Amino acid sequence: MNALAVLALVPAASGFQSFRVHAPPLRLRSSPLGAGSRSADEIMAGPRTGDQISPACGQPLEVIAANWVACAKLGIPLVTQNNTFFKEETYQVAVQRAGGLGLVLSEVWADEDAGSDRGVVLVEEVVENSNAAKAGGIAVGDTIVGVFGASGLAEGSTTEGLNWDSTVDALGAVDGPEITLTMKRLVKRGRINVRVTASTGENLGTFNCPSGANLRMEFLRRQLPKDEIYDPNTMRFDAIGNYGSNCGGEGSCGTCLVAITEDEKGLVAPSKGTEKKALAKQGRPVRWRWSCRTTVGDGGSVDGDISIQLQPQVRFPDEQKKTEGLGV
């Protein structure tokens, strides 16, 4: 194979002890996809495409690496160790190869055990006017998790959680004028302010939670008394005539009602499944939800504010005593 310039000619400065600079051109070794590698669906089907990827989190490389090193040590897909504030997104980008990709890679961590190829390699710089810069999308802090040629998985390899040498080997193992990189990015998880009022209208305060959080679980984490979550005088949807008990969050009793009183960004998704059928059958207002089935935000990067009222049904005795339920 001809020598291939993979990285930028000018290495970036780095404070990482494990950082190594390999000046191109390089003669790279083949690292084909082999047994035990992740499946095609896992590698090729990322949760987002290139034009939908969220902005990079903007954290120092040390912070990004700290989120992924534990997984790299175990040889498993890189998942953040702090999912309260971060999450991962993957995307693909095709980059021309003539003249080099134009990426400066930094090996932030590498397993020192003999024979191990585990590590965390991050993009430290996207060289201006390079092929990578022209392809667009790649940001500082991203990591290469897959390298593929024109034939997809038939010509390529997975590089997630691999060290510098193995990553560069994979980059050079694909022939052709263009290479497709599957990238993983650590992005900021959105934060949602939730303003809570009692059924009486009393302001109980505001708490902040990650986008995608379950409302009932957030109540429990903050030690909200269960009699504030569940109304003991509301008849269970799944057990007609049964008062004073609840399903413990299984999503069947309907006693943990809340009203969404403010949601300008549409952060609370509409009800679905059993909850949707039950609320419709009982003729509940559209803004009423079961807290155990309410997700605050979609798990993305959007911040926002919502307001809710606990136990809106207690102001309406007829709503508490409704007998419409399963099998009725």
Biggest sheet statistics:
5 strands, mixed
Strand content: 25-35%
Give me the strand/helix succession. HHEEEHEEHEEEEHHEHEEEH
**Count of strand segments:** 13
Shape: elongated
Mean pLDDT: 80
Radius of gyration (CA) equals: 26 Å
What can you see in these coordinates?
The chain is an alpha+beta fold and 328 residues long. The chain has helices at residues 40-44, 61-74, 131-135, 164-172, 215-221, 226-229, 273-281, 317-320; strands at residues 86-96, 103-110, 119-126, 143-149, 152-158, 178-188, 191-197, 203-210, 213-214, 257-262, 288-290, 295-296, 304-310. It is built from 8 helices and 13 strands. Strands 8-7-13-10-11 form a 5-stranded mixed β-sheet, with no helix packed on it. The radius of gyration is 26 Å and the shape is elongated.
